[in-house]
Amino acid sequence: MSTAPEHTPVRIAQHDARTLAIEWADGATSLLDVRALRMACACAECVDEWSGEPRLAERDVPADVAPVGIQSVGRYAIQIEWSDGHSTGIYPFERLRRLAAAVPGRPDGGALQ
User: Fold this and answer.
1) Among 8, 50, 4, 105, which Cα is nearest to 36's?
2) Which of 27, 28, 23, 25 is nearest to 8 (CA)?
3) DSSP label at 60?
4) Each residue of 43-82: pLDDT tens digit?
């Protein structure tokens, strides 16, 4: 578990209907598309534990999927309850920051300074 400022959120909130905003202790703000975040779930239901192969298909996730609840998991992650009924995934803060940095088509990688 990293306690570095770039892995420590100070605020997590819905930015708009399709975007989750995370403000980090280092001053950056990450904007994450909620459907992409749902597709990135790494729980055993969504990713095969042995092979690492994805089990979740794009067609299985509604286009309008959205978080309906977000809970803290210790001081290292969040767990999201999704509108499609899924709720077993844990999103460590380090992974959320990496996902935000991997946003395609944005020169800033999805992170706003």
Assistant:
1) 105
2) 25
3) G
4) 999 999 999 999 999 999 999 999 999 999 999 999 999 9
Sequence ranges of the domains in the chain: 5-106
Q: The whole model's pTM is what?
A: 0.85
More confident residue, 104 or 9: 9
Rounded to an integer, the average pLDDT of 14-19 is 94
Closest Cα partner for 105 from 50, 55, 31, 25?
31
User: Options 3.30.2020.30, 3.90.1150.10, 3.40.50.300, 3.30.2010.10; which CATH number does 5-106 get?
Assistant: 3.30.2020.30
How far apart CA 8 and CA 2 sit, in angstroms, is: 8
